[in-house]
Amino acid sequence: MKTKILFVCLGNICRSPAAEGILRHMVARSGLEDRIEADSAGTYAGHAGELPDPRMRRAAARRGYDLTHRARRIRREDFHAFDRIVVMDDANYENVHRLAPSRDCAGKIFRMTDFCRRSARTCVPDPYYEGDEGFELVLDLLEEGCEGLLDELRNRSRD
Ligand code: 4NP
């Protein structure tokens, strides 16, 4: 059975599509495409239909990630379609939690930084109004988090 991961941020044009692209890349490199699937969404619909922000696409491309996701807003059905919903910051957590149709569904929500084993940060900060360093920091945290998440999923499937 496939494990389905939905990454969520505010606009779905910077952090969560990058997380999706990074996890997809790692999954493909590990030959796990038939076991793990990634998607992303935002809590705000203002950028729906757009490709990721050009600053994020450029920064991600420099690290070998091609980001082609089209932004969309998270829907209540996503709680049933996905096994885990991984948010970037506290505001995302609150907004997604408010949308959860049941307590079981709310139990699917995690923070990206829960899977970061080196960084002590508790959120992946919004880079939208930041310079290039903001985007690099986001990518560093997302690479670390996706690595931790993938390891956890691999270990679970061995149980
Ligand atoms: P994201 O970044 O949540 O990482 O996609 C943002 C994108 C758009 C806006 C804010 C953050 N905005 O205010 O439009």
Question: Would you give an account of this structure?
Answer:
With 159 residues, the chain is an alpha/beta fold. Helix 1 links the parallel strand 1 (3-9) and strand 2. A four-stranded parallel beta sheet has the order 2-1-3-4, sandwiched between helices. The protein has six helices and four strands. Helix 1 (15-29) crosses helix 6 and helix 2 (54-62) crosses helix 6 (132-158). The mean pLDDT is 97. It has helices at 15-29, 54-62, 78-81, 90-99, 103-106, 132-158; strands at residues 3-9, 36-42, 84-87, 109-111. Bound molecules: 4-nitrophenyl phosphate (4NP).
Distance between the termini: 14 Å
- Listing every helix as H and every strand as E from the N terminus to the C terminus, the arrangement reads EHEHHEHHEH
Characterize the main sheet. 4 strands, parallel
Strand content: 5-15%
Shape: globular
> Strands of the biggest beta sheet: in what spatial order?
2-1-3-4
> Which distinct ligands sit in these coordinates?
4-nitrophenyl phosphate
Instruction: Work out the helicity level.
Output: 40-55%
Structure annotation, total helices? 6
Backbone structural class: alpha/beta
Low-confidence stretches: none
Strand count = 4
Average of per-residue pLDDT values: 97
